[in-house]
TrEMBL record:
The lineage of its organism: Bacteria, Pseudomonadati, Pseudomonadota, Alphaproteobacteria, Caulobacterales. GO terms for biological process: superoxide metabolic process. The keyword Secreted does not apply. This is Superoxide dismutase, Cu-Zn family. The keyword Cytoplasm does not apply. It comes from Brevundimonas viscosa. One of its GO terms (molecular function) is copper ion binding.
Amino acid sequence: MPLARLSTLAVAPLALALTACASMPETPDRGRAAVGDFGEATLVNAAGVNIGRAVLTQGPTGLLIRVEAEGLTPGWHGVHIHATGQCAAPFTSAGSHINHGEPKAPHGLLNAEGPDDGDLPNIHADAHGRVRAEIFTTRARLASEGPGQWLWDADGSALVIHANADDHRSQPIGGAGDRIACGVMAAG
């Protein structure tokens, strides 16, 4: 058989298979979320003063959180997603971290048994107390389906900034200290 004839025969079934796949309806991938849902949290300090905001954007495998704030003590600060959408100072009204899985995971991104679903990397305030950061987590979502805990449940959720850095190991909050800023997450 001539070489040109063989390559045409070999390619024809592949072309037919690709055409068939292109015409089939897509099925949702349960490990991915619908992209584009977004929300916001106005960050307030203990005096109730607006110090910044967090913008949340749903990606296919997790949630991107952009934090812009000022008026913080320079240095590293723990930041976590809390289970209740309330921010009455001293912000204990925000409850504990989102951690809906069973059994509950202990706190800490570096904990061999963790992390819990509300754990996030630390943020850094510059010498002027300003934060400009983006954080990504696969443990939370805005979309109705996909990976992570759903933040738009009946009592909402809050983003809390702490006075100190989170060591990502010790219990219950990694030594992050007082809750110094809070923002109720709301659909955008």
